């Protein structure tokens, strides 16, 4: 049955808001555990950026407790693997934060790291850690994942900014520092 609209009713010109973050995904397992791990690491680092890190271990335990009890993440093998990967990233970023932030600062000559949004800053930190400390992950995978996470958690312009910055940083990786996993015949790129 066709419904006809009353021409005297005002036409709604509102555009539906684009959902951001994990909440708009139907099920967690749609992504590889490393993608989920990157997102969780970014969220924890974002939280630390805003609230400080008086007791990193306690803050991390509270973060995992909240994530598990939120109902957003099923207690599954994928979540456990994502958690382990996120902890690797969190530990690596925290241990190398000075080096990572210095690299970001010297590459981003027009934006001081303190002027970057906290979300963008931590997405970039995660990617820079992977670029320099995870030789098994191809550089382009780390960059693409950062862009995709930015699309979910940040502004519409963040993807371009993050892409440009990370591509410049990628050029500073020493030759042969990355394992060319995706170049081997018959191998799959692991995201």
Provide a short characterization of the protein structure.
The protein is built from seven helices and no strands.
**What is the N-to-C order of secondary-structure elements (H for helix, E for strand)?**
HHHHHHH
Q: What's the N-to-C terminus distance? A: 48 Å
The top-level CATH class is Mainly Alpha
Q: Helical percent range? A: 55-70%
CATH superfamily: NusB-like
What's the number of structural domains? 1
Multimeric state: single chain
Q: What kind of sheet is the major sheet?
A: none
Count of helical segments? 7
Determine the mean pLDDT. 81
Structural class: mainly alpha
Stated plainly, the CATH topology is called N-utilizing Substance Protein B Homolog, Chain A
Secondary structure elements and pairings:
Blueprint: H1 33-51, H2 56-69, H3 77-95, H4 97-107, H5 118-133, H6 139-153, H7 158-170
Could you explain the architecture of this structure?
The structure is a single chain. The protein has 191 residues and is mainly alpha-helical. It has a single domain (30-176), classed as N-utilizing Substance Protein B Homolog, Chain A, CATH 1.10.940.10. 56% of the residues lie in helices and 0% in strands. It contains seven helices and no strands. It has helices at residues 33-51, 56-69, 77-95, 97-107, 118-133, 139-153, 158-170.
